Amino acid sequence: MDILRFITAGSVDDGKSTLIGRLLYDSKNILADHLEAIEKSTKNKDNGEIDLALLTDGLRAEREQGITIDVAYRYFSTDKRKFIIADAPGHVQYTRNMITGASNVDLAIVLIDARQGVVEQTRRHSIITSLLGLPHVVVAVNKIDLVDYSQDVFNNIVIEYSKLAQQLGIKDVTYIPLSALHGDNIVERSEKTPWYEGKPLLQFLEEIEIDNDINHTDTRFQVQYVLRPQTEALHDYRGYAGKITSGVYKKGDKVKVLPANIETTIDKIEIAGVEVEEAFAPQSVTLLLTDDIDISRGDSIISAADAITVSNEKDVLFCWLDEKPLQSGNKYLLQHNNRTVRTVIKNLAYKIDVNSLEHIEEVQQVKLNEIVRASIKTAAPIAADAYKSNRSNGAAILIDETSNATVAAVLFQ
């Protein structure tokens, strides 16, 4: 059974937490004691309905303010698929949380209040979705009950968002009218929207194909651990364990080891100790090579026919996550999958306005939640793809050497 990872994003009070609560509640993925606690928390509500948002708004500050501050993760499953949900905050000052939550998902659900239409935060979250290259977007027009289930209101929002999606290059967009509070078009199609002919949200999430989103063309494997059992039976065993981030590897393939650029051949491929003829992303494997080469953690093994830029100077896009501003000349650690190298910021080219995509030149420093195009120089060469061509090998993080805090999401250009 495969896993679908998705994020919900939208403006404050668009109903993101309520939507997730409704999915959990209607799919019967809530433990009895948890449900009882939620019922007690909402027993004083005038209409007697359960406040489903409390299933995700676990922080006390969120309950008091009625907003989501942190990225809340929830897990549930149906007979067809497992799900991991990231509920991102809606306030402007928590944009970094949305970036963090969206960095490893397959799909984004962008909620729009039917009464408000496309607003500033809708644009901001959609721009981030575009920058992160998320392959699928669902526009959930929520609170459709508050506009009398109007088809005209829904169609106008579809037209407005379609223009935004076209501008941002978002290609796969699905529109669903729903009411998270009352359950319309969540698990079952609602009789109150007879004009809507699409699938309810849960069915759509169960059936959407994500296998084709994996890059099976470019072979990318980075060594996580060198296996040397040191036993009498396996005295000459040397395996390189890690995860195939993209592509397909077969026994007998000609490969090259980067950054040394040494060519060799795959002798064996093992998965959980069992030899196989081939393996593919996103499997975790052990590769054994015909030649004895000096290989260590963070080195890459790719097809000998593949081309990739191995360099210690890179153009990048930073999504800044730290309270302390970024300035040219600052030094950090760059973590690219399993490879960690020291890095210096060489130049800050321009900021990107997350509301208009406008480029702001002459950057002196970068503050929390801002996005900037920059150039970096690393102490050792790294084998990274452009993020747009290969998400799995085109992203990294910056780490503050003193505090070990993650200060930026990095997208290679």
Structural category is alpha+beta
CATH topology of the largest domain: Rossmann fold
So, CATH architecture of the largest domain? 3-Layer(aba) Sandwich
Number of helices: 7
Overall residue-averaged pLDDT value: 87
Principal-axis shape: globular
Estimate the helix proportion, in percent: 10-25%
Question: Largest beta sheet, briefly?
Answer: 7 strands, antiparallel
Keyword list:
alpha+beta, Rossmann fold, Elongation Factor Tu (Ef-tu), domain 3, 3 domains, 7-stranded antiparallel sheet, 7 helices
Layout of helices and strands:
Layout: E1 3-9, H1 16-26, H2 32-41, H3 60-65, E2 72-77, E3 82-87, H4 95-102, E4 107-113, H5 120-131, E5 136-142, H6 151-168, E6 173-177, H7 201-207, E7 220-227, E8 239-246, E9 248-250, E10 254-258, E11 262-271, E12 274-276, E13 278-280, E14 284-289, E15 300-303, E16 310-320, E17 326-327, E18 331-336, E19 339-352, E20 359-360, E21 365-366, E22 371-383, E23 395-399, E24 406-412
Parallel strand pairs: 1-3, 1-4, 4-5, 5-6
Antiparallel strand pairs: 2-3, 7-8, 8-14, 9-13, 10-11, 10-15, 11-12, 11-14, 16-22, 16-24, 17-21, 18-19, 18-23, 19-20, 19-22, 23-24
Question: What does this protein structure show overall?
Answer:
The protein is 17% helix and 36% strand. The chain starts with a strand and ends with a strand. With 413 residues, it is of the alpha+beta class. Strands 7, 8, 10, 11, 12, 14 and 15 form a 7-stranded antiparallel sheet that branches.
Summarize the entry for a quick read.
This protein has helices spanning 16-26, 32-41, 60-65, 95-102, 120-131, 151-168, 201-207; strands at 3-9, 72-77, 82-87, 107-113, 136-142, 173-177, 220-227, 239-246, 248-250, 254-258, 262-271, 274-276, 278-280, 284-289, 300-303, 310-320, 326-327, 331-336, 339-352, 359-360, 365-366, 371-383, 395-399, 406-412.
